[in-house]
Specification:
It contains 21 helices and 7 strands. It has 503 residues and is α+β, with helices and mostly antiparallel strands.
């Protein structure tokens, strides 16, 4: 074979814990890049890799993924082609089971992986037999707890890796995790609606995607994290894990590690009185006030770093100490990053001072605001986010001037009903359960509108695929495929129908 071309690689921070052979990294990188560019077929890439290296560690694999961004390989392409990339290495990729004690965050992740594999095994058994809806619902009740597994990675493990210069795990794996979430949601919709065939047709894909994700965690993510993340950081991570919770396993024992005393010393705070703007409070009182606020607060400073969030019991979305010190763009799915960056830009340049959003999720009405924080001279000092479940507030009518200790549970139930009625109400009666085919029979012009609404709907231009999907897909399913919430998609459809009627 002719010699491989030379690549010019910019330096990427390796961290003091990762010492790699730069020439070996270059050889691996060159073969991967030539394959991804279509300049080398799979068979040659595999042969070249066997010729170039004896083995490849998880750390070497991870640093190569990080280097790929220098050559225009996007995170989306990495996520879509990860299976091909792994195929290049074959059995050259080595990964020894991590030797960590109970309580260590990586040990807990591995326990969750084992528990999830047990669920997947039960699902494979169900696929081989008669369709049993109740058994499938029980399996999905457990499988859907994978969201907690994802949340701990996103809020705890990924920030630690980003601090070492590795942002590919969070960017690529978050995309894969969202695909799993969307597929589980679509499958659950078929199951609850009694669409047996449509549900069963998705289960092989569900099992494959979840297993692939866990395999990548075991082979790449966890070994790399153990090489890069310090023991002190794992102690901190364990302290924040309880706040998010665990997936299919009991709360693990504490992890003290060798760094426990140092961590405790760094997290201790004095109890002196603080001269706040209007009064004087102890640090304990400040924390108690934040903890009992009926809204969730998060603060991002002028450098776009997350510096604070309020530790309330009723948080709308999970948070953990792992987000502190993290770039705010890395705390959001890539689909939302452009919006976050636009808000910060408009605030920083003085064009806007506030942005508000609201959404309906799981029967709740969530209200979110972003406010530009400025000092006494008007200088931009960051962004304050407030978030609250406004379901009950939205349902209130009339006045209440007398003290009442009425059951909030009963009020919440009434509020949930009111929210559901509001969600379903619009001039054309569209709901998340509206079947796409029924909608298009009445408003055929919406077909072309959907094609242009999102690039993710481009596959629907295939007549056979569109016909099949339209007959079974609800607007909730269609919205998930397009990256919208059901309410967002319905709003766009209602607006388009109104525009057409008025023209």
């Amino acid at each position: 074979m002719k010699p491989l071309p030379e690549l010019e690689l910019a330096q990427i921070p390796m961290g003091k814990h990762l010492h790699l052979d730069q020439e070996k990294v270059k050889r691996i990188m060159t073969i991967k890049l030539l394959y991804l560019r279509g300049e080398m077929p799979m068979e040659e890439a595999q042969a070249r890799m066997r010729e170039a290296v004896d083995k490849v560690t998880a750390q070497e694999f991870a640093i190569c993924e990080q280097h790929l961004q220098q050559f225009g390989i996007t995170d989306d392409e990495l996520a879509d082609r990860m299976e091909e990339i792994l195929e290049i290495f074959g059995d050259l990729l080595e990964s020894a089971p991590p030797d960590v004690p109970p309580g260590h965050p990586i040990h807990t992740y591995l326990e969750e992986v084992a528990a999830l594999r047990q669920v997947l095994g039960e699902m494979e058994g169900l696929l081989a037999g008669k369709f049993l809806p109740d058994a499938w619902k029980e399996a999905y009740d457990r499988l859907e707890r994978i969201g907690t597994h994802f949340a701990r990675k996103q809020n705890q493990l990924f920030p630690a890796l980003e601090g070492k210069g590795f942002d590919k795990p969070s960017k690529v794996m978050w995309t894969l995790e969202n695909r799993i979430r969307n597929l589980l949601k679509e499958s659950r919709g078929h199951l609850e609606a009694g669409r047996e065939r449509e549900f069963l047709d998705l289960q092989e894909e569900v099992i494959t995607l979840v297993e692939d994700m866990m395999g990548k965690e075991e082979e790449i993510l966890y070994p790399t994290a153990l090489e890069l993340v310090t023991d002190e950081e794992f102690v901190r991570m364990r302290q924040g894990d309880d706040e998010i919770g665990y997936c299919l396993v009991e709360t693990p024992p504490p992890y003290v590690g060798a760094a426990w005393g140092e961590v405790e010393e760094k997290t201790a705070h004095p109890e002196g009185v603080l001269p706040v703007n209007q009064g004087r409070l102890t640090l304990e009182q400040v924390n108690l006030i934040f903890r009992h606020l009926q809204v969730d607060l998060s603060y991002v400073d002028e450098e776009e770093i997350v510096r604070f969030y309020s530790d309330t019991k009723h948080r709308v979305f999970p948070r953990s100490p792992g987000v502190i010190g993290r770039e705010v763009r890395n705390c959001h799915p890539r689909e939302s990053v452009a919006t976050v960056e636009e808000i910060i830009r408009a605030f920083r340049e003085g064009e806007q001072d506030e942005a508000e959003f609201w959404l309906e999720m799981g029967g709740k009405f969530i209200y979110i605001t972003y406010v530009a924080v400025r000092d006494g001279e008007g200088k931009f000092r960051g962004v304050l986010e407030t978030m609250q479940d406004a379901t009950r507030i939205r349902s209130l009518t009339g006045s209440q001037r007398l003290l009442s200790w009425g059951s909030k549970g009963e009020q919440s139930e009434e509020a949930d009903k009111a929210t559901e009625q509001g969600r379903e109400g619009n001039p054309y009666g569209l709901t998340p359960d509206t079947v796409l085919g029924d909608l298009l029979k009445e408003y055929p012009h919406l077909k072309e509108f959907l094609f242009n609404l999102s690039p993710k709907y481009s596959k629907l231009k295939n007549p056979l695929l569109f016909k099949t999907m339209a007959s079974v897909a609800t607007l909730e399913m269609v919205s998930a495929r397009g990256g919208f919430t059901p309410e967002e998609l319905i709003g766009k459809l209602v607006e388009e129908i109104g525009r057409k009627k008025g023209s």
